[in-house]
Design goal:
Elements: E1 2-10, H1 12-21, E2 25-35, H2 40-43, E3 47-53, E4 56-64, E5 70-78, E6 84-85, H3 87-94, E7 101-116, E8 119-128, E9 131-140, H4 143-157, H5 169-182
């Protein structure tokens, strides 16, 4: 599956304001991120995670594409949450040679979803390593519809230009992980 999305960081106030603007459905998910000690997968722009949702576990890999705002996302269900994943298992799923990886930690997200014709708005409050951040994701199949929704929300929240465009959760998680590991 190809994943297309825009991401914007929000303040706590913008997040709370936006929650009141639309009819969101809310749930909690936990992403457990995996990599080597040297963060080899991250260096190749490959994300390896196990998403925990309603007691189920899904191994997911995200791989880069040549298209802006897009990544290939692969997934398979697992029986349990592993502490390590073998390179062979990851290679079988992705078709890319991968090393063995270990669980680095978790990022817990309270996600509120609102659907529109051509995509969905995901409003996220994420917690990891004692830190909390707020993010707006617009996942889409229709880029023009998504840009229209993004412009509407940006106008309501006072976000101008690219001031809110941000790195994804895994990048923010790994930046904080590096700080924690270096202490």
């Amino acid at each position: 599956m190809i994943e297309n999305e825009f991401k914007v960081m929000l303040t706590a106030e913008q997040y709370e304001n936006l929650l009141k603007q639309y009819d969101f459905v809310t749930f909690t998910q936990v992403n457990h991120y995996y990599d080597t000690d040297a963060l080899e997968m991250s260096e190749q722009h490959i994300t390896v995670r196990v998403r925990e949702l309603d007691g189920s576990f899904f191994l997911q890999m995200k791989l880069p594409t040549s298209v802006n705002f897009s990544r290939v996302e692969l997934s398979k269900e697992l029986e349990t949450l592993p502490e390590t994943l073998s390179g062979a298992e990851l290679s079988e799923l992705s078709g890319v040679e991968c090393p063995d990886v270990k669980r680095l930690g978790e990022l817990k997200t309270t996600r509120s979803v609102w659907n529109f014709d051509g995509g969905e708005v995901d409003l996220d409050c994420s917690e990891y390593f004692g830190k909390t951040d707020f993010e707006l994701e617009i996942e889409f199949t229709d880029e023009q519809a998504a840009r229209t929704v993004l412009n509407e929300i940006s106008s309501k929240l006072g976000i101008t230009g690219n001031s809110g465009i941000c790195a994804g959760k895994v990048r923010r998680f790994l930046d904080e992980y590096r700080i924690v590991v270096s202490k």
